[in-house]
């Protein structure tokens, strides 16, 4: 049995609410016996993963490199389909839904590299995302962009600043505001605090917790940071599939078979070497 043949370890973070309350909630997102391989018949990156994600909570997905964190994020974001099992959004198979609508209405993605347009201002990046969603809003887009910047702790004077003039922490805040500008129910973030100082990291996590607890969103964060994971309500720990030991056993078995095949040849060589050649005297 591989490590991911069972549901990965789930821990409670500092901000966790009682888990028995989650059982009564309808999951906004659910992984149902999900496995994934990059090619047909290839080795699985994820195997038999099952988990429920509810609104109003912040989740951390952790694990070492190669455990499948980014792959899991791609499945949740609708960028890939599982090779086995289902990703369910409000009980419906994501593979059968309108994927463009899901990504432009229901889920917001915060990329590790921000993916902002550097020549545009902070407000313009946010408004462009609102335009792309096709949603209608009660307030003018410019006013909404200013409100969103305030929610990620950026003063109004940053609205007209070009992104290329902003620091990494400021760009991350703009990226978060852009991701929930069209009011998605799910927010996913890939290493959102990777290159930030501790004070900025703490402030970014306060923003994510507020988006979950105060606005009722489902927030899912992929992270290597124990501090970030501990600040979430629930930690979903992935482990890499145990292929090394299996491959090692196979290599040992192959080596043993080759050794067994060489032994008769070696014995024949030794026997031939022991026969004296013509004119050669045996050692006394």
TrEMBL record:
Residues 29-272 form the ABC transporter domain. SUPFAM superfamilies: P-loop containing nucleoside triphosphate hydrolases (SSF52540). Pfam families: ABC_tran. One of its GO terms (molecular function) is ATP hydrolysis activity. InterPro entries: AAA+_ATPase (IPR003593), ABC_transporter-like_ATP-bd (IPR003439), ABC_transporter-like_CS (IPR017871), ABC_transpr_LolD-like (IPR015854), MacB-like_ATP-bd (IPR017911), P-loop_NTPase (IPR027417). Residues 1-21, 243-284 are annotated as: Disordered. Its EC number is 3.6.3.28. It is an enzyme of class 3 (hydrolase). Residues 246-264 have a biased composition (Polar residues). Keywords: ATP-binding, Hydrolase, Nucleotide-binding, Transport. One of its GO terms (cellular component) is plasma membrane. PANTHER family: IMPORT ATP-BINDING PROTEIN, LIPOPROTEIN-RELEASING SYSTEM ATP-BINDING PROTEIN LOLD. Belongs to the ABC transporter superfamily. This is ABC transporter ATP-binding protein. It comes from Bifidobacterium subtile.
């Amino acid at each position: 049995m591989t490590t991911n043949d069972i549901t990965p370890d789930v821990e409670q973070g500092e901000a966790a609410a009682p888990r028995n309350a989650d059982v009564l909630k309808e999951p906004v997102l659910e992984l149902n016996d999900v496995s994934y391989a990059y090619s047909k018949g290839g080795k699985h990156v994820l195997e038999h993963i099952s988990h429920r994600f509810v609104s109003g909570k912040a989740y951390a997905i952790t694990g070492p490199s190669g455990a499948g964190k980014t792959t899991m994020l791609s499945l949740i974001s609708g960028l890939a389909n599982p090779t086995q099992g289902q990703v369910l959004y409000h009980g419906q198979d994501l593979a059968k839904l309108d994927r463009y609508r899901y990504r432009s209405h229901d889920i917001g993605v915060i990329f590790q590299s921000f993916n902002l347009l550097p020549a545009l201002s902070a407000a313009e990046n946010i408004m462009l995302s609102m335009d792309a969603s096709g949603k209608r809003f009660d307030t003018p887009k410019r006013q909404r962009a200013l409100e969103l910047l305030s929610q990620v702790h950026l003063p109004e004077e940053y609205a007209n600043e070009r992104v290329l003039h902003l620091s990494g922490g400021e760009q991350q805040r703009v990226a978060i505001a852009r991701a929930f500008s069209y009011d998605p129910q799910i927010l996913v973030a890939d290493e959102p605090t990777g290159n930030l100082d501790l004070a900025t990291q703490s402030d970014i996590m306060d923003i994510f917790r507020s988006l979950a607890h105060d606005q009722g969103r489902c927030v899912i964060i992929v992270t290597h940071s124990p501090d970030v994971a501990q600040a979430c309500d629930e930690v979903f720990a992935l482990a890499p599939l145990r292929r090394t030991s299996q491959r090692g056993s196979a290599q040992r078995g192959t080596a043993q078979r080759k050794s067994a095949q060489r032994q008769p040849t070696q014995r024949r060589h030794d026997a031939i070497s022991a026969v004296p050649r013509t004119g050669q005297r045996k050692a006394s």
